[in-house]
């Protein structure tokens, strides 16, 4: 279910873009994420799989872990995850298990994105939870960061 972006969405996504820059400064793919509920940041993260030697340390997972630890609960109802790129299968599964209310992402990930680019998992009928999805918030900036990162590596 697609939703329209708000001014608040742009504000929070700009904060996620700063986290993406942190990832890039560490030599990681520039992806940033933060979890927000009622105007409060519950958790934030940026990609860290290379430096952390952890294949699960995607920005979304890092933010979800921080939020769940801070709340003392792995369920985070009513929360919105802002992430600079469309989530992969692993991250989408974690988002669903956390029972988030909403997902807002910036750029599409044409190869591995599972919300709109490949599998359209938010519309899958086999989940017992529904999540609202808004795409394209600051998407051009997020995509530019990814393109610049990979161009520099070639």
Short note summarizing the structure:
It is built from four helices and five strands.
Beta strand %: 15-25%
Rg to the nearest angstrom? 14 Å
Main sheet characteristics: 5 strands, mixed
Report the count of strand segments.
5
The secondary structure category is alpha/beta
Strand order of the largest sheet: 2-1-3-4-5
Q: Number of helical segments?
A: 4
Order of helices and strands: HEEHEHEEH
The chain-level mean pLDDT equals 95
Q: What is the approximate shape?
A: globular
- The parts where pLDDT drops under 50 for at least 5 residues are none
- Helix amount, in percent? 25-40%
The separation of the N and C termini measures 37 Å
What would you note in describing this structure?
It contains 4 helices and 5 strands. Helix 3 links the parallel strand 3 (80-85) and strand 4. Strands 2-1-3-4-5 form a 5-stranded mixed beta sheet. The protein is an alpha/beta fold. The model has no long low-confidence stretch (mean pLDDT 95). It has helices at 7-25, 59-71, 89-97, 139-153, and strands at residues 32-37, 40-46, 80-85, 102-107, 132-135. It starts with 6 loop residues before the first helix and ends with a helix.
